[in-house]
Amino acid sequence: MQEPLFDLSRHRVCVILNPGSGSKDDRAVARAIEDALKPRCAGFALRQTARGSDIVAVARGAVAEGFEVIVAAGGDGTQSAVAGALAGTDAIMGVLPGGTFNYFARGLGVGEEIPEALDSIGHARVARVDIGQIENLVFLNNVSLGAYPHILKTRESIYRRWGRSRLAAYWSVLVALRRLRRPMTLTATVNGESRDYTTALVFVARSAYQLDSFGLDGADAIRDGKFAVLIAKARQPLPLLRSAFRLAFGFSAKDSDFDMIVTDDLTIVTPRKRMLIAHDGEKTMMASPLHLKVWHGGLRVLLPAEAPAETKDRAA
Fold this sequence. Notes:
Blueprint: E1 12-17, H1 26-37, E2 43-48, H2 55-64, E3 69-74, H3 76-86, E4 92-97, H4 103-108, H5 114-122, E5 124-134, E6 137-139, E7 142-146, H6 147-162, H7 166-178, E8 184-190, E9 193-199, E10 201-205, H8 208-214, H9 219-223, E11 227-232, H10 237-249, E12 258-263, E13 265-269, E14 274-279, E15 282-287, E16 290-304, H11 309-312
Parallel strand pairs: 1-2, 1-3, 3-4, 4-16
Antiparallel strand pairs: 5-6, 5-16, 7-10, 7-14, 8-9, 8-13, 10-11, 11-12, 13-16, 14-15
Pfam families: DAGK_cat, YegS_C
Keywords: ATP-binding, Kinase, Nucleotide-binding, Transferase
Protein name: Diacylglycerol kinase family protein
């Protein structure tokens, strides 16, 4: 059963703006956010983070100060960091897209631009949504091992030189995969059953919107509260190029390129003691074995009054 419309005027709101996301004028964005929200809520603060690594601490500080609504303004990495700070608490998360792809915002239906998303916050309801966890790290869209984390490393250097854009992101895939030499081996365990794989890319999806945009199966499983775990069949650079490029950046992919596991609880073991893991556009070194699970209803989020189908069944 859906909750009634959320009354913003009775709540204190803190907006966390990550200036490192996207390429828009941060001062103009901050001014637009303040003009739209400050007159409509019981209390308002806007805090810009000097570094992306500060986002979690700023979000936790806002909750400790009594702000009931924490709005993340930035790309998927910013959204994921704020969600990690709020998961399991009574705080409510608002979403303002400000990155390159904005899969989380688009999946929730809040829009792809700041003005549209601000309108949705002003006419919203509260819902609980499922989120992913890998060890103690929260993620919203995906986690990946193998080629994709190295694509992110390459992307950062290209962004520093040429600026943020989708074209630069696509180019980073070509550059990174050209350097790929060896596939990885791993063991995936689900419900006590284990299977060995040799692959160059593992993609654990939690965004139905993202899989739909890729043209891949698995979105319905995500809507049912599961992961869609895609394991690339290609082991070498040239055949991997097509499937990884499509999967990483939203071109139509092919189900025949991947094996798929559907589960809400998964353990991955690799021979290497530590692996570079990509999560929602960020990257972290983590130790094997890696335990992933779906945290059902783990996050309270402001959704548009008319939310997309993938979130309606998760409304609290």
